[in-house]
Amino acid sequence: MTLLYFAWLRQKIGKSMEEITPPPGIATVKDLIAHLQTLSPAHAEAFADHSRIRAAVNQHHAGLDAKIAAGDEIAFFPPVTGG
Amino acid sequence: MKTRIRIQPEEFDMNAEIAALTESGDAGAVASFTGHVRKEGDLSTLTLEHYPHMTEAEIERLVRQAGSRWPLTGVTVIHRIGSLPPGARIVLVAVASEHRQAAFQACEFLMDFLKTHAPFWKEEDRGGKKHWVEHHAGDDDAARRWKK
After folding, report:
1. How many Å lie between the alpha carbon of B9 and the closest alpha carbon of chain A?
2. Per the count of CB atoms within 10 A, which of A83, B33, B76, B119 is most buried?
């Protein structure tokens, strides 16, 4: 599974991308966030407030309950501010 | 519908973009919007980051939605990335149609959804102090009013 981070999430975590193999039982974006929070203090801080985080699964906006699978590209970022 | 989507650091040429939308002669109207870096206080630069590939895919999805709602002949969306000074153009949305109502409405629709859906993030630099721009809740309301 490929994870991508943007804006302040990228800065807090200290990388823009990482490959992980989540443990069994990680079925949704929300499950994945809970798992990522255990990876390092930087991850824990970056993901502390769910309300400030948005996600995309395979380049489509996705809610916290969206299903995820091995091989997916999952991105985490703050609410967008383009235009 | 001729669709052109570009994400680039470079400046763009408005006249050339409008000309490209009208050269075939099928459009009677072009409505366009440009967004610029607003000089607020001591803002020195605005830096734009995006999610390569998803940005283009998401804007394409929005353009397809606009094309299914209004009879459009062409749409051009250009969004700049990188560091931009106050006054610089950030974004162009230009929409061509046979008649003006469709062009005006689709242009506004696309801007409203670009603001809430296209994966871009702005970081402000104020005298060397950087901070990420917060999402504006009013943008969600603007996009929501198109859902009926």
Report:
1. 14
2. B119
Question: Going by C-beta distance under 8 Å and a sequence separation of 6 or more, which residues neighbour residue B97?
Answer: B27, B28, B29, B70, B71, B72, B73, B103, B106
Would you kindly state where each structural domain of chain B is located, as residue ranges?
2-144
Tens of pLDDT along chain B (148 residues) come to 999 999 999 999 999 999 999 999 999 999 999 999 999 899 999 999 999 999 999 999 999 999 999 999 999 999 999 999 999 999 999 999 999 999 999 999 999 999 999 999 999 999 999 999 999 999 999 999 998 6
B128: helix, strand or coil: coil
Number of A–B residue contacts, CB under 8 Å: 71
ipTM more than 0.85? yes
**Which residues of B are less than 8 Å from A77 in CB distance?**
51, 119, 121
The domain B2-144: what is its CATH number?
3.90.1170.40
